[in-house]
Amino acid sequence: MTEKIFSLPSAAETERFGAALAAGLRGGDIVLLFGGSGAGKTALVQGAGRALGVTEPITSPTFTLAAEYEAVAGGRRTRLIHLDLYRLTRTEEADVIGVDSFFHPDAIVMAEWPELIAAAAGPEALRLEITGGGSEPRQIRLSCAEEYWGERLSSFLRP
Ligand SMILES: Nc1ncnc2c1ncn2[C@@H]1O[C@H](COP(=O)(O)OP(=O)(O)O)[C@@H](O)[C@H]1O
Ligand SMILES: [Mg+2]
Fold this sequence. Notes:
- By secondary structure, the chain is of the alpha/beta class.
- It has a single domain, classed as 3-Layer(aba) Sandwich (Rossmann fold).
- It contains 6 helices and 7 strands, in the order E-H-E-H-E-E-H-E-H-E-E-H-H.
- A 7-stranded mixed β-sheet has the order 1-7-6-2-5-4-3.
- The longest helix has 12 residues, at 11-22.
- The structure holds adenosine-5'-diphosphate (ADP) and magnesium ion (MG).
- Adenosine-5'-diphosphate (ADP) is lined by residues 8, 10-11, 13-14, 35, 37-43, 60, 112, 137-138.
- The site of magnesium ion (MG) has 5 residues, from helix 2.
C-alpha cells in the first residue's frame, strides 16, 4: 500500500484535486471516498467529473444512491458512476441495489460513504479519506496498491 497526505486549503483545491486524479482514471477503477458530512467528497467528484467531460451538474445522489454520467477517460468513452451510500445501513442492502453491477470495466465508480462496499470493491480500489470540515482546510489521505496505481498516479505519488 502506498499512502500520501495532501492539504487542500480551499474548495477550489478539492475540485482541482479531483480533476488531477481523474486524469489518471480509466474504466474499471473504483475510488472510495471516506469522510464525514461536509468534508468535500462531492466537491471532489465534481472536479473529477468536469475533467472527465461530464457536462451535467453533479450533486450527491443521497436519495437515489447512484447517478450515472457519460464520461471520457484517456480518450475513451466510459461512464462515471457516482454513489452516495449514506442511507445504506446493511451490507445486504448493497447486494439488493446491485452495487456489484456498478463494478464494471466500462465504468469509473466514485463512492461517497463507501464503508459497506469497501470489502466488495477489493484491494485495487483507491481509497481517499478527507478530514476537516466547515471553513477549515481539508486533508486527504490517499492509499492505493502501488502495483495497480503507481504508473497512472505517478505525478501524485512521486515524493
Ligand atoms: N478544501 C476545502 N476547504 C474548505 N472548504 C471546502 C474544501 N473542500 C470542500 N469544501 C466545502 O465543503 C462543503 C461541503 O462539501 P461537499 O462536497 O458537499 O461535502 P460532502 O459531499 O463530503 O458532504 C462545500 O461548501 C464545499 O465547498
Ligand atoms: Mg456529498
